[in-house]
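[Meeting: bench + compute handoff]

Bench side (C.D.) handed over the final construct sequence. Compute side (W.E.) agreed to return the predicted structure before the next meeting so the bench team could plan truncations. Sequence as handed over:
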Amino acid sequence: MRRVSRIAVAGVATAALAVTVSACGSSSSSSASSSSSSGSSKGIGLAYDVGGKGDQSFNDAAYAGFTKAEKDFGVSGRDVEPQDGESDADKTQRLETLARAGYNPVIGVGFAYAPAVKEAAAKFPNISFGIIDDEQDKAANVADMVFHEEQSSYLAGVTAALTTKTNTVGFVGGVDVPLIHKFAAGFAQGVADTKKGVKVKSQYLTQTAEEGGFSSPDKGEAAAEGQIEAGADVVYAAAGLSGQGVIKAAAAHKVWAIGVDSDQYNQKALAAYKPYILTSALKNVDGAVYDLAKSVIKDKKPLTGEIRGSLSNGGVGLADSNPTFKNNATLQAALKKAEAGIKDGSITVKTS
């Protein structure tokens, strides 16, 4: 279980199926059942965003909620990988295949699933659908699981401002889209509000997800290298799998990296870079997946509508696994003050 900084509240909550891989993606499960749309559940259907399982970040957080729900509720599940260059129609088919097979809820991980969730939910009104990071679909059988990413990013900015020795920090965003603008805006504001004169060097890796902004560690590494060469000694990445490259570059130059979504200090795949991962800006994607599964499978009262994680409800926060971060009394006091200001409204964090 990940640990969250003491400034953050605890997490919000704790018949064969034939799939054509080219259209619906590969899967780590081979569970089988007859098709169903009656509202009963054979388990959770989870469809990953670009980068897939193993990104040590966004998708892996969803997977953690998925596996915990499987264990706690005694059900099987099916998690399905994305394919390169896939269309909205491919995503829709993937979700419909899971729904038709009787998985309930069916969850699309990432805003790219918005059109697919809307179409599939309309066709399967007795199945609960969930989408992470999008709130457009207001259908009665859809849970829109979204977050105040700008709030945890503000705290990451406070951290960077009080840690930098060069008065230059960096932000690497995966794709130039409104969701990632929230991370960038919160971070820059946190820096500016904390220490005057600190420069923020900001870069987006690509204009679209299809160009690999969330799935290209080499792009992340190159961007971070450029920022570090320009003087940045703390670099914050909101770039999915590409963030691994940012962390690698930070470790190579012995400067600080701030991770995102999952507690990247504790990710086994990033163990070689662990001494240089100061903290991570968390959002409770695993809790969101788990809570939706619980509402459908155990409570029989499916969650629906907008469900937004914030500092106030524990949906976002900072990881405190690194003792250097956790034991810095000056930093922790500043973070506590900043969080209190966000909660009481005296600090309004920008989203763009």
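W.E. noted at the follow-up: Residues 1-39 have pLDDT under 50 and may be disordered. C.D. will use this when planning the next construct.
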